[in-house]
Amino acid sequence: MKINIKKTIYTLLLAGGVLHGCFLWYSHRPVEIVAIHHRSSGFSDVLVKNFPFTDKGKIHWWLKNKAMLKEKHNVPNPDKEGSFYLTFWLFGDGYKEEGKYDRLCFKDMKTKVNCINKDAVFSVDKSINMGTMFVAYDGTYRLQKNGEIVKYVSHSEAW
After folding, report:
1. pTM score, whole prediction
2. Same domain as 53, residue 24
3. Which of 23, 47, 130, 145 is most buried, by the most CB atoms less than 10 A from its CB?
4. What was the pLDDT predicted at 4?
């Protein structure tokens, strides 16, 4: 069996270009905020679609959109000490009944269809002791006073 090298290279380049184009399109879709639920003082959940893939993309999105989230949706909603914990969840297939699966249910919705599958993609929390922290897929990051973002290693992880 004879292989045509030029045709194989052309096919691989074309396939790579199509995959790259699909990735670029998928990663540049705007984030859609579906709903926001306030659980208790300082704790809020944001249900999203099309959230960035990478840790860097998630943090960048937060820094770019935090003022809009505060103005438009009143999140984060800090407690009296100024601390907050904000979790971003993929909305997935929408709201579901509690069922037998491990789901997060929102008591502020007066319906049986008030739960989502637990698929957290990002969280931001701020406390007096730790400052602003980001938790994403690949790790935990801390916003330094000078604006630099560094990967955080706790003492238990360092051992």
Report:
1. 0.79
2. no
3. 47
4. 77
Extract long-range pairs of 9-12: CB within 8 Å, 24+ residues apart. Answer: none
The phi and psi torsions of 54 (rounded to 5 degrees) equal -90, 155
Tokens of 22: 């699909």
Strands in the chain per DSSP E:
32-40, 43-49, 84-90, 96-97, 103-105, 113-117, 120-127, 131-136, 139-143, 149-151
Q: Which two tokens stand for residue 89?
A: 């969840």
Alpha-carbon distance of 148 to 142, in angstroms, equals 8
Q: What tokens appear for 119 in the block?
A: 């698929």
In the predicted model, residues of the chain with pLDDT beneath 70 are 1, 12-29, 154-159
Task: Convert 131-145 to b/e letters by CB count within 10 Å (16 or more is b).
Answer: ebbbbbeeebbebee
Considering the domain architecture, whether residues 61 and 122 belong to the same structural domain is answered as yes
Give the model's pLDDT for residue 2. Answer: 73
The boundaries of the domain holding residue 68 are: 31-158
